[in-house]
Fold these 4 entries.
Entry 1:
Amino acid sequence: MAGKKYYDSLKAYTPSQSYDVAEAFKLVCDTAKAKFDETIELHCKLGVDPKHADQQVRGVLVLPNGTGKTVKVLVITKGAKADEAQAAGADVVGAEEIVTKIQGGWTDFDVCITTPDMMGQVGKLGKVLGPKGLMPSPKSGTVTMDVAKAIKDVKAGKVEYKTDKLANIHCPLGKKSFGPEKLMENFSALMEAIVKAKPATSKGTYLKGISIASTMGPGIKVNYKQ
């Protein structure tokens, strides 16, 4: 059940109305009333059919102002690449012993990066990491020989956007403490990437609905002009 602060936030705007970008971001910051620094999120409804492989929208982007989140990075690799990962700031580095640890239920990390030569081992972790969204993949840039760049991008605020089964994209834009201006810069960069990722086979209206919300606050519709 929603609390008093949530209902107070609802009084600050008209839920059925779409707001221009600047006004929407001022509202989302004003209505984020929790005692912690709330995450501001993008929720986007696309006019695609994710059941068709050629209409799935997916990509990665380093947000201009980062996400404001401290990310714990695990790198599964060995040899010289393990040394490279340590030097680049990985929080945990390991090989077969880490795979065994994860098989035992350990998932105390936010992002998992690995090198192609370790995928034979990492592939065993699909049932553990898949449901948590932690499984490395080439599309997200987390299966790579350039582990230093992958770590740097993740630490700098790389996000992955992809459609779910209902053709929605949910993605963090940063923290309330960023203020409207920095959040708008992240929003613009992410929306540009989503628009560019429009599948050639997608017909009709592509951007069907866009809203932003804080962790504990209500959704605010955005009138986005490409």
Entry 2:
Amino acid sequence: MTMIRRLKENLFLVSVALVYIIMFIATPVTGMESVKNSGYYIKEMLMIMPVIFILTALLDIWIPKEKIMQYLGKDAKSKGVVLSFVVGTISAGPVYAAFPMCIMLRKKGASIRNIVIILSSWAVIKVPMLINEAKFLGPKFMAIRWILTIISIIIFSWIADKMIIDKDLPGEVLTQAGFHINRDACMGCTLCVKNYSELFEIKNKKAYIKSYKELDMSRLESAIKSCPVKAISYNENKEM
């Protein structure tokens, strides 16, 4: 039963492994190329994501929630749209690097529309991409494609903002003795465990609180601050 449960919990990874096995059996050359490509992207992620986590944590500390709500919240209107395009366009790195930052911005009050704009801009109209597009396909092609893409992003972000409501977004909160852990936001990065292994543990790639008698508030504060997506909070008044 334990094995079956583990397979269900890691169904995606099991499915990917089966696909690779089938490819190796059917076409070994294609299977080998797929493994090489996967290895390249895994190596890229291992190099980029730690930097992204650090930058996200720093931005979370430096930029107050009021500023995020003012410039990227629902009331920011056209100002928020323009700033979202700027943030997405000047950003560097693959689009998956944008997700930790967007989680942080969303938690601090950024609107769904502006989050969609940032992600879309990051994916398809970054400055380096536009430069290379102009170089290989010509400035006219780049300019027309850029204008049409901007229009499309504005339309789709407006539709997403109308269709998606706050309760549709992940946000399951586990409450335990004063602790609040957003398990959907938790990425299983283990930083909380590294800062306070006697209190935190990772189960099924999510943070959990161990049984404890006393808290080391200094280490607890370090563990909470280390979380790149700010999934952990603590209110000692609620501790029983």
Entry 3:
Amino acid sequence: MAKAQFHKNQRVYVKPVGTWALIEHVVPHWAKGIQEPIRIHYDVGLGREFAAEELLNEEPLGENGQNGNGEHWRVVRARNKWQPAEDCARHPVPGTYPVVVTGDAEWGGWRVPGAEYDLDPAKVEMQARLIAIAPKLAAFAGGLVDWARKSGEDMPNELVELAHNAQDILAHVKGQ
């Protein structure tokens, strides 16, 4: 039996179309004599119903919808305007490229030139995920440094070295 993977008014990326949309209706398909739907499709207002495999969730955010230090960084997909989806079938999500949005609006942030993305899509996808998670990594490093300061000399040497490295990385990020 089928279970709904998305809900009404949820923002999803529609892979075949290469755009973001809101789910307008969850459409269960029933069979006579069966208590649960046999499959579920989603109406996103684009002219036809889509299966769950054709849709992608937005990347989940942490507590309160934020990453790390209260930042709203996330990876979204932008439409690839320089190549049709058929010409870039080897890309992870053909017809799109990742954009790291670093503010509340859906624009702004980090993008990569199309030619660079086409050279190594897997590398750029990894870079986008790394940039989007950077606030959480910085918060983790800061927590490690704070914990090391409070622990004093009760720490193993390897952990002391990690805390020093985290402190150096945070100083570099802050421009100190």
Entry 4:
Amino acid sequence: MQEATLADLRADLARQRHDELYRGRGERFQWIVLEQSEPVGWITLAVTSWEHGLAEVGYALTTAAQGRGLLAAAMQLLLADLFLATPLERIEARCAVGNVASQRVLDKLGFTREGRLRRYFQLDGERVDNFLYALLRDDFLPRPR
């Protein structure tokens, strides 16, 4: 697998049409997580069905940026934007069973662990189980009284 350079990522981001996201179109969107104007990670949103309002989010941070709440803060902003400005109703996330830090991020954001996906993907040459998490619009946004 070839690693992407920062220039590659920026070029890819420049080609994206985020306005399509807010029109309920498009399939894949990415954001770079910055700390003091320096890239420290990324967030990807893959829309699996606009008709049903379904999407999946993935993310990563550099090792140096982990453990300081940066990802949770960035995700909180993005989730608010997605649920307020798009027709998405359900956002899923998956993480390896052994990735406790990622589980903490999802728990902090209000995602619900819905199940275990056995041998879901390959990590370091080994098939690993993943937890499936989901966040619904109604879980995130307060309901009118």
